[in-house]
Each structure stands twice: as structure tokens, then as C-alpha cells.
Design a protein that fits this description.
Layout: H1 2-14, E1 17-22, H2 41-47, H3 52-55, H4 58-63, H5 65-69, H6 84-94, E2 98-103, H7 109-113, E3 118-120, E4 123-130, E5 136-137, E6 143-144, E7 150-151, E8 159-163, H8 172-184, E9 187-191, H9 200-203, E10 211-216, E11 229-232, H10 235-243
Parallel strand pairs: 1-2, 1-9, 2-3, 9-10, 10-11
Antiparallel strand pairs: 4-5, 4-8, 6-7
Helix pairs in contact: 6-10
Keywords: Acyltransferase, NAD, Transferase
InterPro entries: DHS-like_NAD/FAD-binding_dom (IPR029035), NAD-dep_sirtuin_deacylases (IPR050134), Sirtuin (IPR003000), Sirtuin_cat_small_dom_sf (IPR026591), Ssirtuin_cat_dom (IPR026590)
GO molecular function: NAD-dependent protein lysine deacetylase activity
């Protein structure tokens, strides 16, 4: 493992532009679940005979808002904090390294760690909006009706997170910027993602640079993409080792 960490650090040091393409596995060490691992949210749903692409879709939200917002049991929410992956990437950027983050996550932890270049493919949960009048609310401002459905106090429309659901398209501007970022990078780090859904599984093929590194707990499909270095393990622990 030490030799792999040394090699990764060498790749980062040598690259003028680093594209970091991250998924849910980047945030698991912050206490957030992933989606498609053996214990992921979507795997759990499939075990309950639920189709994640149906239950987490725009159509399902419109037709079954009560079920959509009450699917998971209420728990005392602990605000997640950036882990070593978020922190070390931000520190590298602050030290002058051109590291450009493309994330499938909606948790905002890269920004919370201080990273300045973050493209959020699936939106974010920092703001919610009314589907009737487009009024914007912070999550703590959202009011809920007797069925626990978030409602706009003006229009009474459903208030939803500013995230991309199944059946919806990512923001075109973010998507185009992500394509440009990957195509310009000399090093592509793919971390904590299964690469099973669009646009993630297609975006990586825009890479024309020198080296591809994969950091993941489980093997992923990277056909038609030459991987120079594969590190099996946690993303945060890997970047903590780099920082040492």
C-alpha cells in the first residue's frame, strides 16, 4: 500500500490539472451512507422489493409525495463534517494545486472543507424550492404539513431539495463544464463511485490525459479506460496517508 500511496502522490505532484471525480464513497467516512455497495441505500431498497429508480424519481415525488418524504424512518440528524478526503483536497487547492472536483454527492462537504472548484452533477441540498412558485428556502426554514410533506407557506406547493432525481436531467452548464474539466486534466482520480449511472459512466471517457487512478472499496467497471493505479480502500484514509 505504501508504494501505491507514493505513486499517487507522484502523479498528483506531476500533474498541472487534477480532476477528482467522486461519488458517495467519498462521504461514507463522514457518516453518510453510499448507494450501491453491499450495504448501500439502493441495495437496501432492492432488498425491500423497492425499485430505487422508481421511488427516487420525479414522477414518484409528484404522485406519492407522502411516501417520498416518509420513506426513511426519522432519526436524530447529526450534521456531517468533511473527512480527510475533503480536507486534504481542499488543502492542496489552497496550497496552489489545480484540483478540480466533480461530485455526484449533494452534501456540500467539499465546499464545507474549503474547496473552491466543485461541480455538483446531481445538484445539492443546501437549498430547497417550491415546485409551484420557485421560492427558495434553506432546509431549516422548510415547513411541513400534517403528512410531513414540505409545503410553501405562500403557494402551498411541495418544497423539494435542489437535487437531481431519476427522470430529471443534470444542469446542462454543470455537465458541459464537467466534460471540459475531465478533457483538460492530466490526472483523473475516480473515487468512491460505482460508475453505473449516467452521466458518470460516460463522462470519464472524456479523459485524454496521462494517468487514471481508481480509489474504491469494491471493484468497478472501467472498461475502455486504462487504469494506471488501483487502490482498494477508503478514500479518506487514502488521502490521509498522502498527507502524512
Amino acid at each position: 500500500m505504501d508504494s501505491k500511496i507514493t505513486q499517487l502522490k507522484k502523479y498528483i505532484d506531476e500533474a498541472e490539472i487534477v480532476a477528482f471525480f467522486g461519488g458517495a464513497g467519498v462521504s461514507t467516512e463522514s457518516g453518510l451512507p453510499d448507494y450501491r455497495s453491499r450495504k448501500g441505500l439502493y441495495t437496501e431498497m432492492e432488498g425491500q422489493k423497492l425499485n430505487p429508480q422508481e421511488v427516487m424519481s420525479h414522477k414518484y415525488l409528484i404522485e406519492h409525495p407522502q411516501a417520498f418524504f416518509n420513506r426513511r424512518p426519522k432519526k436524530d440528524r447529526v450534521e456531517p463534517e468533511p473527512n480527510d478526503a475533503h480536507k486534504v483536497l481542499a488543502q492542496m487547492e489552497q496550497a496552489g494545486k489545480d484540483i478540480r472536483v466533480i461530485t455526484q454527492n449533494v452534501d456540500g462537504l467539499h465546499q464545507k472543507a474549503g474547496h473552491r472548484f466543485v461541480l455538483e452533477l446531481h445538484g445539492h441540498s443546501r437549498t430547497w424550492y417550491c415546485m409551484e412558485c420557485s421560492r427558495v428556502y434553506k432546509p431549516e426554514e422548510v415547513e411541513k404539513d400534517e403528512q410531513n410533506i414540505p409545503r410553501c407557506p405562500i403557494e402551498q406547493g411541495i418544497v423539494r431539495p435542489n437535487i437531481v432525481l431519476f427522470g430529471e436531467n443534470p444542469d446542462r452548464g454543470i455537465l458541459e463544464k464537467s466534460k471540459e474539466t475531465i478533457s483538460k486534466a492530466e490526472l483523473l482520480i475516480i473515487a468512491g463511485t460505482s460508475l453505473t449511472v449516467n452521466p458518470a459512466k460516460n463522462l470519464i471517457h472524456r479523459f485524454k490525459g496521462k494517468h487514471v487512478v481508481v480509489i474504491n472499496n469494491e471493484e468497478i467497471d472501467t472498461r475502455n479506460l486504462k487504469v494506471d493505479l488501483y487502490i482498494e480502500g477508503k478514500v479518506g484514509a487514502t488521502f490521509k496517508a498522502i498527507n502524512k
